[in-house]
Amino acid sequence: IWAVIVLFTPFLIHHASAAIAKLIPVIDRIDATFNEKYSNSSVTLVTEGPQGRRRFPDFTVSIQTFRPITDVVVRNGTNTPVFTTPNANIFLVKINTKITISTLNGRFSQPFLDTTVSLCDLMKNPQKYHVLALFLFEIRRYGPLPTCPVSANLYVFSNVSLKRMALPTFLSESNFFSEILAKIWTVIVLFTPCTIHTVSCLLSHKVIPILTRVDLQDNLKYLNSSVVVHNTPTETKVDLAITVKRPLPDPWINVIVWIDIASGTLQAPLHNQTFRFCDFLRNPGMSRIGQILHREVKRYGKIPTCPIALELYQYCGISTGAIRLPTFLPEANYIMHVFLGVGKEIVYDSRWHGTLKHLRCTGSMRC
Ligand SMILES: *[C@@H]1O[C@H](CO)[C@@H](O)[C@H](O)[C@H]1NC(C)=O
Ligand SMILES: *[C@@H]1O[C@H](CO)[C@@H](O)[C@H](O)[C@H]1NC(C)=O
Ligand SMILES: *[C@@H]1O[C@H](CO)[C@@H](O)[C@H](O)[C@H]1NC(C)=O
Ligand SMILES: *[C@@H]1O[C@H](CO)[C@@H](O)[C@H](O)[C@H]1NC(C)=O
Ligand SMILES: *[C@@H]1O[C@H](CO)[C@@H](O)[C@H](O)[C@H]1NC(C)=O
């Protein structure tokens, strides 16, 4: 758990005019605790205005993160699955928000809102999260919101006032007390060769994949292929050849990546994405891992176009040394499973086994 923030807010019905009632939250107490390992932050209520009196209390949020917060997630648990999203995003940060409204007389037992969202998804698509978006839209008037991936930095929102926030008026029939509990937690594996988690430490090395073994199963009706792997201490070079012997109508491709984090057993895949191969060739950006592979492979030979011509596709000496993986990934074994299929038939089944290697950046080892 990275932070717990509780806002106690008695709602106020503010009569802007005789005809229009506007409902805004007024905060009278904030309890906030942060996990010191990840963050040195504070949320403070500012009740004193310049004139010594303030109708609507403001609050100041100051968050200093020590580690980058990104979409990519690795989990250190023996049997807990890794979260995955369609774009290989694994959640690092989720926010759980509960809003409980109680009348002045008695408390409703059920929170009227109880939702857990990924911080990055909230920031990318705030309109999906109605109540949270209302807060976010106010907060961002007071300072730039971080973008994802969130880098380790200091984020300050000074003297935030919620007096412009318009709550749904269906709440306005009575006075309420609300309690907002925002829980943010990160699940990170502690792994890097640096002992102190600082930005400069994270920038001082790069992570590249090294290949140790490739298992191939070709459907000889459609194609045959070969792979040769040469390793050096700082990269893997791969010779890859595929002879396509029969048309591949509308092929699909499935890429699954597993990283063996801690226990020696592979857990849920870190990445699992299936897409139409021709869509991918037109727009490699649709798959984050696919895009990385596409960028490297095309430097060493001709990438097929659709419809896929019957010929020999050959790539000599594809290097993994130029691949940049997120530097917080641990030195761990991985398996990348790439299937190519036509309808229900598997045409090409390849399993790429290897290790993620950390290399220090030096004058001759540029990062
Ligand atoms: C972080 O800690 C330092 C030293 O304790 C303090 O001066 C600073 O204000 C803190 N930063 C935040 C954002 O709370
Ligand atoms: C926030 O409010 C306090 C108290 O009124 C004031 O001293 C401070 O300058 C304000 N900060 C900013 C950044 O406006
Ligand atoms: C994973 O967490 C456990 C318990 O906190 C710890 O003992 C272990 O060292 C961690 N493993 C790694 C690789 O960080
Ligand atoms: C596929 O098989 C043919 C015939 O055996 C062979 O000439 C060709 O080199 C093979 N292609 C690959 C990529 O191994
Ligand atoms: C990958 O995702 C597909 C579709 O969501 C699912 O059917 C399949 O079991 C997943 N594979 C693995 C290895 O989890």
From TrEMBL:
It comes from the Eukaryota. The keyword Transmembrane does not apply. Keywords: Signal. Residues 1-18 form the signal peptide. It holds the Pfam family DUF1091. This is Uncharacterized protein.
